Amino acid sequence: MLYDFKNIEKKWQKYWDNKKQFKVKEDPQKKKFYLLEMFPYPSGKLHMGHARNYVIGDTLARYLRMNSYNVLYPMGYDAFGLPAENAAIKNKTHPDKWTDACINTMIEQQQRLGLSYDWDRLVITSKPEYYRWNQWLFLKLLEKGLAYKKDAIANFCPKCGTVLANEQVIDGKCWRCDSTVEVRNLEQWFLKITSYVEELLQDIDKLSGWPDRVKMMQKNWIGKSKGLLVEFPLKTENAKIEIFTTRPDTLYGVTFLTLACEHPLIPELIKGTSIEKKVKDFINKTVVQKRISRLEEKNKEGIFLEKYAVNPLTGETIPLYVGNFVLMEYGTGAIMCVPAHDQRDYEFAIKYGLPIKEVITGKNKPGNAAYTEEGILTASGKFDGISSPEAISKISDYVEEKGIGRKIVQYKLRDWLISRQRYWGTPIPVVYCEKCGMVPLKESDLPVLLPQDVEFTGKGNPLANSPSFSECECPKCGNKARRETDTMDTFFDSSWYFKRYCDPRNDKALFSKENVSYWMPVDQYIGGIEHAIMHLLYSRFFTKALRDIGLFTYSEPFQNLLCQGMVLLNGQVMSKSKGNIVSVDEMLDKYGADTARLFVLFAAPPEKDLEWSPEGVQGCYRFLTRVWNLVIEHANNSVSRSATVCDNSQKSDEDYERVRNNTIKKVTVDLSGDFHFNTAIASIMEYVNYLYAGNFNVSAECKDKCIKTLVILLSPFAPHICEEMWQILGNKNTIADISWPVWDEEKIKLDRVSIGVQINGKFRGSIEIPADYQQNEVIKCAVENEKIKKYISGKNILKTVYVPGRLLNIVIGG
Known about the structure:
The chain is an alpha+beta fold. It has 26 helices and 34 strands. Helix content is 36%, strand content 19%.
């Protein structure tokens, strides 16, 4: 018998909403758990790739509540940003209206999925009640010297007269009018994240609940290195160029210098020369490339600036270039080039006919490539004959003695540019007065609201073109002043939103210290690996800066981090731009929320990519139908069904109790550990097979206990159908209020155990083995099992992982 999932899901969603089932309050008497998914950008309708993230969190939230945790599980929307402004330009509407419509659609879909958020804590970053606290935080950071202005390069469309984000530059042209994009120096706002660089780096090792991959990405982004800062004087100009190197042993082999396109000395060096336009065109073309693509650019290009520097150790004159492979944010924005001992420099020197001077000799020297290994110095003056490691130390000392450089610790991390020359963001709360200069607003003047009298044409900055916004009085002297028209990077919004959930309706402060001290830090954070650097690093910085302002005492925002895998369709990541999405609405209309939830949890471990499978979805729907029929038959006291798998009719209460308790244990251990949802569901499926396999010649009490245990164990994964079945079984209370069952170890002891078998992380079946089997014996049984054999036939077993008594994972290849 099929179950009516549409009406069942509507019924229970309405029940939870009316009862405010998942509303949470601070309770010092209960153990708290703060569970959070990275809040989404409201871009429109969800697809199943998005839904997987939320279903993972919701399943854990429901399980934790049933284990007596006081669970904070909120939702919000990262609502400012460029897409809304672009949509306003395209559709001739206001970004606020477009954003609100998207949010309402997403809320409806999330509620249809049965997500158990405390909706009373909803946070939307584009609303004044949120962004006023962005402005308050900015003023505090400014007061502490952590916010400042300086010149920085920006993409600029001369035809539209507006600054462009990187996303608005397509193949070097403006996304709107197709004009060639230029780069210009603009005075912009920065946050001094580098003030915390060493603490950010050192504290990574304290993040024991984070994936090693994410921690390594953050370490590499911070990029600490010890080296030497060396001054190369220009030959004809009264200036010096500083370079940072970790290879002082190659200083005698420097044959040219290369500057980043953004280097501030370049405009002065080319001004009024015959190459000025050529260099500017090259810089425009290069700077609009994203940083990563510049680093990976295979075609190394440069232009000779018709200027020379002097190698301070040899006195040799060396040419000065601008290159597309040098980044201003790494080192000093200028590099010394040693083509004999750096492959990139070698290729550049060959291309432009520059000298190659060997200063290190060693074994296995390549014929047509740079020698990059350690060796013995040559052509290096008094340092000839010593080894590279020794030369690094001695030449560094020599450079310091001569006063032409110094040993330093360098970081790749640069201060965070937060200025955005667009409308749909948080206004920066400062004004500019001819008499007083730059003046921060008073807290009593917050929030600075976005004006409504703006036109979205794509030309210029809407805020700068709004007199009602830009024209104001100086809060210090009362004279006419001009308001700052830059808005804040949306990463500012997302760097502290998780703290606002602790006290979202507080209109006197960001949050109360009591609330944030109770809930923070976040116990489990869930989100994509694409946020491993920017969002997570900025959130860590904000936490440390706000700690030092005195708002709380903890130093890290997220104790544990899960980076869920992608959802794939035909081997490609689901994406609107690729047109390969499975919509949430389509899934819910056809199969219901519980089937959708069960599939995304069962098809693969959360941290692995999941291949979408219509057959797998149908299988989950059939399974839920089997459970439904089993419960209905039990409720109707129908036992006429014959055995479908094997005959368990001789099994006793003791046998059923053993299986029941063992299933409780397996599911509990899987949910309490590293998100083994797929194996937990597999254990429930095995349990259902066991219950289906016999005629239940057991006591009524045992039979009832077995069925109710099934419904409780399944409820975090498929909450709607389980609520309905729980009611059908005669229970008055909601299953969400039921305590999670506890197993009795004494009732589990047995001579044989059932082991789940995964192949490359996917559940493929179970094998029954003696309880005392060791790993090699378990593997032998698995590979000889007929069900398992077909998955590994002709393949190489690369690795096996055995969890005694529970699970064997076999990794195959070839």
